[in-house]
Design goal:
54% of the residues lie in helices and 14% in strands. The protein is of the alpha+beta class and 317 residues long. The chain has a six-stranded mixed beta sheet.
């Protein structure tokens, strides 16, 4: 095989490693491209292209993450990973680990780890690399990598929910939830929300935002009820999709452009969290992006026009 053929064969794996380390589609793609440039320019032929390329993309991703951490500290409002529709890497032997590790909840847990812990966890726990390979990739001793793996597992286990619903049950409940939202069925929505449900939105200051998040069934239900009629009234379509390996949806404006995405966390038969990405910079890899401010203004006007008491509406996204 030529170098280009070897690289193209391994590209899905390299992207999947980089995305889990970085939580960003754009940054992962850049890391993969930089890996190719290094591979192409290397005067030596590695004994194992997989080991060489995995090490290269890991090191590049660690360096990118260190600088990204500084930017995220200055981010406007809550930060969420960029939504991913399809993970390009498939391994039937590790399908459960791969699916769980790409969820919004797991990626947010990974944010708690140091860059080195995160890289070690991703390589070892998600992709099943042996410690010699992990050590080579992060340029640390095997003993150090074992310690990093122990700390990373502990942090991840502390943050995981104690019980996780069956995947089919999660999908079915999410489908009923989205149907109830589209129909404006407040009673049905209320019956599916956990008492401590949270809604978190990532706008990055570049789209409508409802503050730093909303918690509690009553508040979330009030917002969902306000959003449902307002968005339907201006032609917004809710398109159920698998987002980051979990139930979710793409919201499209009347012209088909992407408005925002939802991912829905389900646990113990209830919706525990709704995470929405509205920042247009995090959506353009999914397709043309709508003007969320214009849609929001139209939705507010629609709600005012149909309101009997003239109460100012909640934000619509």
């Amino acid at each position: 095989m030529t170098r280009d053929e070897e690289f193209q064969e391994l590209r899905p794996l390299l992207f999947s490693i980089a995305y889990r380390i970085l939580g960003s589609v754009a940054e992962a793609e850049d890391a993969v491209q930089e890996t190719w440039l290094r591979y192409e320019a290397s005067p030596t032929v590695p004994a194992s292209p997989k080991s060489y390329l995995s090490s290269a993309v890991t090191n590049i991703s660690i360096n990118v993450l260190r600088s990204a951490r500084v930017r995220r500290e200055e981010y406007v409002g809550p930060w969420l990973p960029e939504p991913l529709l399809t993970d390009p890497y498939e391994d039937p032997q590790r399908s459960a680990e791969l699916a769980d590790s790409v969820s919004m909840a797991a990626l947010l847990l990974l944010e708690r780890l140091s860059p080195l812990e995160r890289a070690v966890f991703v390589l070892r726990e998600v992709f099943g690399f042996g410690f010699p390979e992990v050590a080579e990739a992060v340029e640390r001793s095997e003993a150090a990598c074992r310690q990093l793996a122990v700390r990373a597992r502990r942090h991840m286990d502390e943050g995981r929910p104690r019980f996780e619903a069956d995947r089919r049950e999660r999908r079915e409940l999410a489908e009923r939830f989205l149907d109830a939202f589209r129909d404006g069925d407040v009673d049905a929505l209320a019956g599916m929300l956990a008492a401590d449900v949270q809604m978190v939105a990532d706008s990055g200051g570049k789209a409508p935002q409802w503050g730093r998040g909303i918690a509690g069934a009553a508040k979330v239900l009030r917002l969902l009820a306000a959003m449902s009629g307002a968005l339907a009234g201006v032609g917004v379509v809710v398109e159920p999709r698998v987002m980051n390996g979990q139930p979710g949806a793409i919201f499209r404006a009347g012209d088909g452009r992407i408005l925002n995405t939802w991912t829905i966390d389900v646990l113990d038969g209830r919706v525990q969290a709704i995470r929405t990405v509205i920042n247009p910079d995090k959506l353009d890899h999914l397709g043309p992006v709508a003007d969320a401010w214009a849609v929001n203004r139209a939705a507010i006007a629609h709600r005012h026009a149909g309101s009997a008491d003239g109460t100012p509406p909640a934000p619509s996204m």
